[in-house]
Amino acid sequence: MMKKLFLVGLFMGLPGQTFAQETQAVELEGTWQADTPDGPQDIVIRADSSASYGEETVRWRLEPDSILIAFGDEWIVYGLSYLGTKVIMSGGDLEDPIEFRRVGPAEPLPNGVQVPPAPPANARAVL
What we know:
- It is a single chain.
- The protein has one domain: Lipocalin (Beta Barrel), CATH 2.40.128.
- A hairpin with a 2-residue loop joins strand 3 and strand 4.
- An eight-stranded antiparallel beta barrel has the order 3-4-5-6-7-8-9-10.
- It is mainly β.
- The longest helix has 8 residues, at 2-9.
- The chain is globular and about 35 Å long.
- Mean pLDDT is 80; it is low at 4-25.
- The protein has one helix and ten strands.
């Protein structure tokens, strides 16, 4: 479940980068929260291509309508869309779409925490 939530949270871009659809745009860097059966779950998306939830830190890449999240030696691809100020992640290994809302700015990566290396660009999971 946490892997799925973390994947959903990796929809941020470079500083000032936005995920745009039609005439609206959502800046993706920040702290986002999803309501889950286990309670609220926060995901921090950073401009350095890292994202964290709980004790986990992963690397992400943004494409026009999706986000790629590195787990181990491959990327998992998730669809991205937005509804007002909320971001919705779907596909990949998610059974149902997950909706996130921004709850604050991105916290810096804690001292001593390493961002895992990025897998090769063509190493995409087939789900």
